[in-house]
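User: I'm putting together a small comparison set for a docking exercise, and I want a reference complex before I start. The sequence is below, and the ligand is magnesium ion. Could you produce the 3D structure with the ligand included, as structure tokens?
Assistant: Of course. I'll restate your input first, then give the structure tokens for the complex.
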Amino acid sequence: MKIDRLELRLLKLPLVHFFETSFGRIDEKHFIIVRVDGDGASGYGECVAELDPYYSSETNDTVWHIITDFVAPRVLGVEFAHPRDVFPALKAIRGHNMAKAAVEMAAWDLFARQRGEPLARVLGGTRDRIASGVSIGIQPSVEMLLQNVERELGAGYRRIKMKIKPGWDLLPVEAVRARFGAIPLMVDANAAYTAADADHLARLDAFDLMMIEQPLDYDDVADHAALQRRLKTPICLDESIKTVGIAREAIAAGACRIINIKPGRVGGFAESIRLHDLCAEHGIPVWHGGMLESGIGRSANIHLSTLPNFSLPGDVAASRRYFDPDLIEPPVEVAADGTIPVPTAPGLGVTIRQDRVDDATLKKATLEAEAQAR
Ligand code: OSB
Ligand code: MG
């Protein structure tokens, strides 16, 4: 497989509803789409970096810079036997996993399309439907939270995750339990607490949550290990798991019992598969995280979620919760039983609406193999 051309686009798409986490509220999504061309085919990758360095240190601007100046020269015109060789070829570049992942995942899509196989099969997936859950942002009121939970349960979703932060935690969780009983429920703090909040967080144990996601700081493994010793509720790490190596340390330290996999956070599909396998070896269940992706990234997430150790419902939900219309046709939909079918056509297996991509494009650049010769 050889990539002759790489197209970068920065897109802006309005969200159907604002999304609020412990680090703020967004009304529209700004994100980068990568297209790689080779041998008459194209592959797509959606970057999960955002406008601001709040979820991670990367932003759309750093991604644009790193792909243009450092990733593209290492992949354009290079013969790769397999897309799993792309991430190692970027080893000289420290960090910037979201930038690397966008290109690496586009390369996997290209490879799968060239072979005429769905991405799930090329990744080693074993199921044809995935279990879907939802992530509900911080709401203006408990009543609105309850309405949201009711709607999502009605749509069939297999688990509810609610965002929490100091001042929006025990009370809304208690209200959801009181109204809906023993539903599969979890919380995500997006690193909003500190080790000094351990006693407060331990009060969540009363609510039989499936897990508490990333309660403490984004690069803190040791404090999560101490907190996990204190809590009955399993800790799931998200932000902290920036590499497979950190995951190994976190598991060894007992910092989590569950891990959320987002390919953008760890550098792409190949690293996600390594992380998935590491977790399986240690009896750590995983689930697929979400970053409010458009249909392009969402489809990629569906394919990766078909690997066997994705044994918990993830944050991969229907398009209509995020974008209407989405960039793909048909949009991602959830069946009444809370599952999403895996596309069976080659690669991502979905049709990208170029007209909608064009309408959403704020800027565009094309990088070619010869121009990149060094
Ligand atoms: O922490 O999982 C997170 C969205 C943006 C950044 C971080 C997170 C999220 C979500 C939304 O929880 C998941 C989704 O519905 O895509
Ligand atoms: Mg999270």
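The mean pLDDT is 97. Residues 44 and 355 are 16 Å apart (CA to CA).
User: Thanks, that's exactly what I needed.
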